[in-house]
């Protein structure tokens, strides 16, 4: 597993993928937080990071699939996936190694945004007038959401040898899981089932964590969804051996 992790991380760092992903993420969030008047913290005058945590998931919907789309699809297209199976590694070691390498890049992209927190902290009146527990909860939520999106991207890459199809499938699944259930629950056809349907979506649990309350139910939800996607990946990879 460690060898797979190192191999994938080195691939990212030796190509433009890592740098493009991190740069696009930071520039997009930076423009939303500081430049665009509709979302700029300097315009509405409140010391919070709502812009980052509100738009971050939607930026992740495109950036994370761009990272993961090649994980298995490229191996399958080039015929190296079968060669990978011959190595003394289990399916889970291969999957987890690739998953952690992509997740590492996602976390690495989030770290520079701590500078935004420090800046807003200093700009507060008085200094430090910011909901720090809420920010911590939101960061934890965004980190866990990135883990779920990464697992979805790994699964999408495992079911096809075409990277474009893997990308589109991953974006669609991420969007539906994040916002789809909330939209469905707002329709006037489910009655008393609407709250339950809403709780099936990521946004419900993500928004709950942004309040600074790290409820175990929300943590279990994120871990369960990510593990389920990795299990589907395992089943898909195992089926290719036959």
Describe the protein's topology:
Layout: H1 2-14, H2 17-35, H3 41-44, H4 50-68, H5 73-78, H6 81-85, H7 91-110, H8 114-123, H9 132-158, H10 163-185, H11 194-199, H12 202-209, H13 216-239
Helix pairs in contact: 1-7, 2-4, 2-7, 4-9, 4-10, 7-9, 7-13, 9-10, 9-12, 9-13, 12-13
A few lines on this structure:
The chain is an all-alpha fold and 242 residues long. The protein contains 13 helices and no strands.
The Cα radius of gyration reads: 19 Å
Helix content range = over 70%
Quaternary structure type: single chain
Beta content comes to under 5%
- Work out the helix count: 13
Count of folded domains: 1
Tell me, what's the shape? globular
Structural class: mainly alpha
**Total strand count, please?**
0
Largest sheet: none
Low-confidence stretches: none
First and last CA, distance: 23 Å
Model description:
This protein has about 240 residues and is an all-alpha fold. Helix 2 packs antiparallel against helix 4. The chain has one domain.
